[in-house]
Amino acid sequence: MVDILHRIGVTSSPDEVYAALTTIDGLANWWTQDTDGDPETGGVVRFRFEPGGFDIKVLEARPRELVRWEVVDGPEEWVGTHITFDLKQEDGFTIVLFRHEGWREPVEFMYHCSTKWATFLMSLKKLVETGKGDPAPQDVRISNWH
Q: What domains, with CATH codes, occur in the chain?
């Protein structure tokens, strides 16, 4: 199994980052505007993009510390993978350690998703620092897969 890993530092509080990861409004303002569902632990959130989308079950959410999801529907490569956001404070930053883990193999789609995750994590940073992110469909288009 292989994983996508990223780290960003955000000049906002862990509470603000946590809210952006655990509310429909927060998620819709950095990942994709077409977001709905139940963001509570055990709930399923639906994220839609031009070429398709994902249904993600919220496995765990600990304020200021951790958000963990499982992909329950979407592209075959994503189903059964886990997405984790670990939060910690360090030198005036909220550090977000991101993992999209459990990919069966490093297929070309994984390369694409790694780049897209980086752009969306920068959108998350922008949202909590300035109040405006770059969610889909305003995100950076990197290929025909968006």
A: 2-130 (3.30.530.20)
